[in-house]
Each structure stands twice: as C-alpha cells, then as structure tokens.
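Morning run. Coffee first, then this:
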Amino acid sequence: MPRYTQQTRCPGCGLIPARCVCAGLPRVTLPWRTLVVQHGKESGKPTNTARLLVRTVVNSVIVPFARRGEPWAASQLGPEHEQRFVLFPGPDARTIDREWLLALRERPCALVLLDGTWRQAGRMVRRAAGIDELERVALPAGAPSRWRIRQAPRADQLCTFETVVRLAALLGEPPAAEALERAFQVVLDAQGRNPACDERD
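And here it is:
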C-alpha cells in the first residue's frame, strides 16, 4: 500500500523542502507539445513525476482526468487544428523512430502521455472521448526502467518523466537529450533518498 506522510512538501516538485529539486531542473524545448493526461489518483502522490516534467519541458501541460466534480471533455486536449498521437503500446501502435519525431516539426503536433497506473492508462486510452480516437504510437524496445520508487507490473514500463527522456534521446539532438537525462538523474537521486516515497502501482 502507498505510504503518505503529513510533511510539508514543495508545491513544485512535491518533495520535502530539504530535498527540493526545483532549482536543479533545466528548461528544455522539444519539437512537439507534451500533453500529460493525468488520472485523478496520481496528482497527490509524492512519487508522481509529471509535475517535474512540466517544470522542465517547455510547452508541456497536465490535463486532469477522472477528478471528482470535473467531467472529462475532448476539448481539454487542445486546439482542433493540432495533430495528436497517444503514446500507448499495443499491436496497432506505430513504433516511433527518429525520422518520425523529426517530422513533427512540420506541423503543430502533440504527444499525449497517459499518467497513471497501467490499468488506469488502459481505461483512458479506450474510454476517454478524444483519446480513444487518436493514433497510437510506442517507443522501441529499450533497457528496463531505472525508476524503482514505484514498481510497475513490467520492467519496460516507464514513469512519465523517463518516457520523455527516451523520446529526447531517440530524437538525437544532444543538448535537449543530455539536459533531460541530467534532470532525470536529479529526480532519481532525490527520490531515492526520500524514505517517504514508497509506492506500488
């Protein structure tokens, strides 16, 4: 079961003030908009990395899903002229490569990331209006996740921040990829030292 504490936490990174990483996070620009659709049960978890992602990546935003009293609407995904893809693996998902990512510069595009447990993400991609119609894409096979704070059902399932680190590396533009890798290491180090962060998906 997740363990929560009543400690005061930084409103930016969600860590206790002594371990705040906000000052160590860079600002990185990617060729696409990053849209994180966050399940309502994720927002208050100290181990959630989406809040750190939006503090690091320019033109990224969190959109709440399944929050009490806040009905979901497809319009929350953004402007109609924007082309969007949802990152979710499966037999019908296109495997992302560098050429595909580079092509996103040619038009307004957004990559939709589903922030929640594997089960929650599956429900969102199947049932959420607007998301259920998007083309699905997936990362190529890679090394197991380095995120050990929360244990996912499979070793290749990544936290939200690590997903974008992989995307930037695949894009092959060293400044952005290296900055995101350094930022993720800052997060790993801070979370790894925080005994209050112990959750299982």
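The longest strand covers residues 33-39. Good start to the day.
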